[in-house]
Description:
Structural class: alpha+beta
Shape: globular
Number of helices: 2
Oligomer: single chain
Strand order of the largest sheet: 2-1-5-6-7-4-3
Mean pLDDT: 77
CATH class: Mainly Beta
Keywords: Membrane, Transmembrane, Transmembrane helix
Low-confidence stretches: none
Protein name: Pyridoxamine 5''-phosphate oxidase
InterPro entries: Split_barrel_FMN-bd (IPR012349)
Number of strands: 7
Transmembrane segments: 72-95
CATH architecture: Roll
Amino acid sequence: MWLLSTYSDEPNAVPVAFKDVTDDGKLVVGDVFLETTISNIRENGKIAISACNERTMEGYQVKGNHHSLFSFFAELLIFLAAAARAGIISTAAVWNLH
């Protein structure tokens, strides 16, 4: 599970179940009931994603900018069948949380 974090007037963090990593290292996030998240993204486009292995406690935080991907959604239709929208994040920085 990933945690997707955004901020505007209020910070927001949500778990993300519909996700993938492209061959070139971009993160794909399915938008399922992410109204506050989308509102924050529209304000400034900045996001952070945190992920952690519960057994080893190895974790990472990725910060970057959101890019809308309507054409990419078609390619991932099977993977994101339950998602209303999809977005992709270009990675600006990665931190090891371990």
